[in-house]
Write a structure and sequence with these properties.
Elements: H1 2-9, H2 16-24, E1 27-31, E2 36-38, E3 46-60, E4 66-72, E5 77-78, H3 81-86, E6 93-106, H4 107-116, H5 119-144, H6 147-157, H7 167-174, H8 178-191
Antiparallel strand pairs: 1-6, 2-6, 3-4, 3-5, 3-6
């Protein structure tokens, strides 16, 4: 739970009483690799904070091709934000890539927390703003950078997990086929 408090402390200062209220708002869970926390068509009831492990959010298109939207590792949050905020069925999956320990909070718990500890509303606003900026940058990168440049950015953003992920998932995140990604990695290694 220290990692959650450290994440919060980067943006807001909580009293000991507020810290206890925050920690009491979460439930702890352990998941094994390949477990799905969310399936397309379900409502995303929880926002998930990763203590350890790796999770990914993805959707499947009409041609049954997976498109990875995001990864979450230690200290990161993950949810289908449309579904979580609207409490309507979503279109994505959340899957455990590497055994994980997480903390979850329902939308109702989050709203109650905002009432009890108003500083947490500021914390989540800051996270959402940063997420919006990161998503906008990723969209611009996907439209303007080569696959190799996108891979370099991926390696900068996820230096600790790039070796833990299946190549297929990295390719999906980059918006390229696994075959092209394999050739790209080979070309990069040969150039070094």
């Amino acid at each position: 739970m220290d990692i959650l408090l450290e994440s919060i402390a980067k943006h807001v200062t909580l009293t000991e009483v507020e810290q206890k209220i925050v920690l009491d708002s979460f439930e702890s869970h352990r998941y094994s690799a390949k477990e799905k926390l969310l399936v397309e068509g379900e409502i995303c009831y929880n926002s998930t904070f990763v203590i350890s492990g790796i999770l990914r959010n993805y959707f499947v298109d009409d041609q049954i091709v997976e498109h990875t939207v995001s990864f979450a590792t230690n200290g990161w949050w993950i949810a289908d934000m449309y579904s979580f905020l609207s409490q309507k069925p979503g279109n994505s999956y959340i899957e455990v890539v590497e055994d994980a320990m997480v903390l979850t909070m329902t939308r109702e718990q989050q709203l109650n927390l905002f009432d009890q500890v108003p500083k947490m509303e500021r914390y989540f606003r800051i996270l959402i703003e940063r997420s919006l900026i990161a998503n906008q940058q990723r969209l611009m990168d996907n439209l303007s950078l080569t696959a190799e440049e996108r891979y370099e950015r991926f390696c900068e953003r996820f230096p600790d997990i790039k070796h833990c992920l299946p190549q297929k998932q990295i390719a999906s995140y980059l918006g390229i086929t696994p075959e092209f990604f394999s050739k790209l990695k080979k070309r990069i290694l040969t150039a070094k």
